[in-house]
From TrEMBL:
Protein name (database record): TonB-dependent receptor
Primary location class: membrane
Localization in the cell: Cell outer membrane
Organism, as annotated: Sphingomonas chungangi
Signal sequence region: 1-28
Bias type Low complexity, positions: 41-57
Gene3D superfamilies membership: TonB-dependent receptor, beta-barrel domain (2.40.170.20)
Superkingdom of the organism of origin: Bacteria
Residue span, TonB-dependent receptor-like beta-barrel domain: 351-791
Region of interest called Disordered, as start-end residue ranges on this chain: 31-61
Length: 828
């Protein structure tokens, strides 16, 4: 028996005891469930046609309601869906203050989300069960697919979507390639917006908060005819800086403003079996980036060396982007101080004046402008349903960033990404006797361009600016089918397969600018020669094809107890690196492949006053895609690229539960344990040792990035009914253990002490956050709320840029401090 099989059997044997263990203490103090209780957190206007809808309990007055999900592209009850999925309807999202994709990590086991970092604040680095892809460029994909109303969002650069007037959010864990397609090796976020109804309804809301926050939003639903209805939603949200900048004398960092609007029209004629829903949205977001603080300064690295030259008065290093030596010397030899952070875009002198002389770095703020149009057509022919999902999206995203977290001009990064995409999916589903089926064809195409500039000690004698331009076109085609066969009323078998064909093209244009009139071409036939950007060209293209599949069985042990086992496989698309890579690395990378086995148990007990869902899994990954941050070459080039790095095995257990211990109270909780590691000897890379020689290095002992061992959450909502209205009190706590965002292995013994510090600096420490809301909803439609996030004012971090052995510094990006405020709303 292999070690993998033994671990799977061990987890499977433990899972039922975890579920039963939650049952006894949860109800022991109550003497049994109270009657007449339902889980009803406070909410705005409840959106109609929700895919994650709360349905009547069906039996057991006051019990938990059914949750309907579309985790398998059709409507099913959560408790009889053989997938590990966290489902949140509109009420849950509002109560838990889940206002964007990043907030989902607070309520989802085994989900880790990084934000900001070397990309704009609109980017998300998603990881589920230790499976992640942390490169923010236009030529690599996320391991977690994001879908809005059935349309795939191609770029993680615009993945931090705001939640306004949502119907549901579903987080599917594990490979989902058969029904959702490529780039779902870790899982998928299935988001659904609220759909128009046949009622005139809506709300208007306004609020204020600390840090000068101002919020206004409105939703209106208008029935236009008996067949036609429309729904419109809009929001404005702005706040000031979170953290003081000690060198500018005022708050800076995370200054943000957002405008968002969406319109949806639904046509459902009574005389035809047709439903057509058309929607469009636009968002504009602008901020000053995440505040970053120095985690470590390498005392022998370039940043410290150049700062020393400035302090010594060496010509060319004084008075140019160097406010003084003190800001550096206070960090040398002191690891992980986490002192007051210096804001991103701190390319200003002590008087706030631009310092680089380059308007692209001095004046840029982070921004994201994005829009989309979607058309969903459903034709219900009785035993057969035909569905067309058509989507178009475009975005323009830019950012500029101080990489060192200090006022010296050691390193900076500026970029802009433009992308537009079109997708079409034709889907057929139905039932023949005991057989349910779904199948379809899929097409996706995207194109755009990227500009990424890296600055190293700009405007000093050895300063360089690497300018990387690239144009890209990608397309993907797929065909899939999945069937469920009901052997009996209790036993069901499932099998499915998908095949995908990808095509990718990139034309790179890169130059190295010494701040002299003639830049040097960095790519193509003119590499190493003075040339313009247009003369530097290096086109490349590649094609990939791969299958995805699933097979499983599930069984209803009773009307309230369900178990399943399944295995799945999926792939993360290959691609190209637009930014420079060392001579020993490749500009292209292969698809990453994942397969897993998963078993689950879902049950409801005590007259549906307790719900417990457990999943155990074991996964095998190969050709794992990982990012590398590096400085290499002469002159020095600062870069980030993707490489394929060996094999990884992960296994773990996940738990979600909800209990109603007494009337008006609902408690929910979750936790996950995750073990992730490289297969010994599978990750061998070429690197330069301390003497500058190229050597083979075994990196399979490194920790897996974005793979926290523990995640957990607990929340409670108490509601009180009064003659005038309803009072709702809610509090929740979420915890995530320490996790790495980057790691390294020494190429020789001389590098070991430095690499050890680099790895420690790239680790984000464990933290827990407390949030809460108090809401009173009057029966006439008036509603008042006060809210708070991170109520204990816990310092926490969202991402890391690690260039300790390259640039000579590691910075960590800080999450929001304690925020609080109040809102007033009128519902009609």
């Amino acid at each position: 028996m292999t070690a993998s099989v033994r671990k799977i059997r061990l987890l499977s044997s433990v899972a039922p005891f975890l579920a039963v263990g939650f049952i006894s203490p949860a109800l022991a103090q109550t003497g049994g469930p109270a009657s007449g209780t339902t889980m009803e957190p406070p909410t705005a206007v409840a959106p109609a046609d929700t895919t994650t809808a709360q349905q009547p309990a069906g039996k057991g007055a006051g019990g938990l309601q059914d949750i309907i999900v579309t985790a398998r592209r059709t409507n099913e009850k959560l408790q009889t869906t053989p997938v590990a999925v966290t489902a949140l309807n509109n009420q849950m999202l509002l109560t838990k203050q889940i206002a964007a994709v990043t907030d989902l990590a607070r309520s989802t086991p085994a989900l880790s989300i990084g934000t900001g970092g070397t990309g704009p604040a609109s980017i998300v680095y998603l990881a589920i069960r230790g499976e992640a892809q942390n490169s923010p460029n236009s030529f690599s994909d996320n391991a977690v697919g994001i879908y809005i109303d059935g349309v795939y969002v191609g770029r993680p650069l615009v993945g931090n979507l705001g939640f306004l007037d949502m119907a549901s959010a579903e987080i599917l864990r594990g490979p989902q390639g058969t029904l959702f397609g490529r780039n779902t090796t870790a899982g998928a976020l299935n988001l659904t917006t609220a759909q128009p109804t046949d009622k005139f309804e809506g709300y208007v809301k306004a609020g204020v908060g600390n840090f000068d926050q101002r919020v206004a939003e409105a939703v209106v639903n208008v029935p236009m005819t008996s067949d036609l209805s429309a729904r419109f939603a809009g929001r404005y949200d702005k706040h000031g800086g979170y953290f003081p900048n000690p060198y500018l004398g005022h708050a800076q960092g995370d200054v943000a403003g957002e405008y968002y609007g969406r319109g949806t029209i639904k046509w459902a004629p009574n005389s035809l079996p047709v439903t057509l829903t058309v929607s469009g949205d636009y968002t504009h977001y602008r901020d000053h980036g995440n505040a970053n603080s120095v985690a470590a300064i390498n005392p022998t690295g370039p940043l410290a060396t150049f700062s020393g030259l400035s302090a010594a008065g060496v010509p060319g290093f004084t008075g140019v982007n160097q406010p003084g030596a003190a800001p550096i010397t206070q960090f040398i030899g002191t690891q992980f101080p986490h002192t007051d952070p210096i804001a991103s875009n701190s390319w200003r002198d002590t008087y706030g004046h631009p310092t680089t002389g380059d308007p692209e770095i001095d004046n840029l703020a982070n921004f994201n402008s994005a829009g989309s149009a979607t058309a969903n057509l459903v034709v219900d022919l009785g035993s057969v349903t035909v569905k067309s999902i058509t989507g178009y999206r475009l975005s323009d995203t830019g950012d500029s960033l101080d990489l060192t977290g200090t006022p010296t001009s050691g390193g900076a990064f500026a970029s802009e990404y433009k992308q537009h995409q079109f997708s079409e999916e034709l889907q057929v589903s139905g039932k023949i006797g005991r057989l349910d089926y779904i199948g379809g064809l899929y097409y996706f195409r995207e194109a755009g361009n990227e500009r990424s500039d890296s600055y190293i000690f700009y405007n000093t004698p050895f300063g360089t600016r690497n300018r990387n331009f690239a144009d890209f076109v990608s397309s993907s085609k797929g065909a899939y089918a999945q069937v469920n066969y009901h052997v009996t009323d209790a036993l069901r078998l499932t099998g499915g397969i998908r095949y995908t064909w990808d095509s990718r093209f990139i034309d790179r244009h890169g130059v190295v600018d010494f701040t002299v009139p003639d830049p040097i071409c960095a790519v193509g036939a003119n590499s190493g020669k003075p040339a313009s950007v247009a003369e530097c060209t290096a086109p490349s293209k590649a094609k990939f094809h791969y299958p995805a599949w699933t097979a499983g069985a599930d069984y209803k042990l009773s009307s309230d107890v369900f178990a399943y086992v399944k295995t799945s496989g999926a792939s993360l698309s290959g691609g190209f690196n637009a930014r420079p890579v060392p001579s020993f690395a490749s500009i292209s990378f292969k698809p990453e492949a994942v397969r897993d086995v998963e078993g689950g148990f879902k049950g409801e007990f005590f007259n549906r006053h307790l719900r417990t869902n457990v999943a155990v899994f074991y996964a095998w990954q190969k050709d794992v895609q990982r990012i590398v941050n590096t400085v290499f070459g002469t002159p020095p080039t600062l870069s980030q690229y993707v490489s394929n790095d060996g094999k990884v095995h992960t296994y773990g257990v996940e738990f979600e539960g909800t209990v109603i211990p007494w009337k008006g109270m609902a408690i929910d909780g979750s936790f996950a344990y995750l073990h992730a590691r490289y297969v010994k000897g599978s990750r061998i890379e070429s690197e330069l040792n301390s003497a500058g020689a190229l050597v083979e290095v075994d990196r399979s002992g490194e920790p897996i990035t974005q793979a926290p061992k523990w995640t957990a959450s607990i929340g409670a909502t108490q509601t009180f009914e009064f003659e005038s209205g309803k009072l709702s009190l809610h509090a929740d706590y979420s915890y995530i253990s320490s996790r790495y965002f980057d790691s390294a292995t020494a190429a020789d013994a001389a590098q070991e002490p430095v690499v050890a510090i680099e790895n420690e600096a790239s680790k984000i420490k464990a933290y827990g956050l407390v949030n809460g809301t108090i809401t009173f909803a009057f029966r006439g439609g008036l509603e008042f709320s006060i809210w708070g996030k991170n109520l204990t004012n816990k310092p926490w971090y969202t991402n890391v840029f690690n260039s300790y052995t390259g640039l000579g510094a590691t910075t960590q990006f800080q999450g929001a401090p304690r925020t609080y405020g109040g809102t007033a709303a009128i519902h009609f």
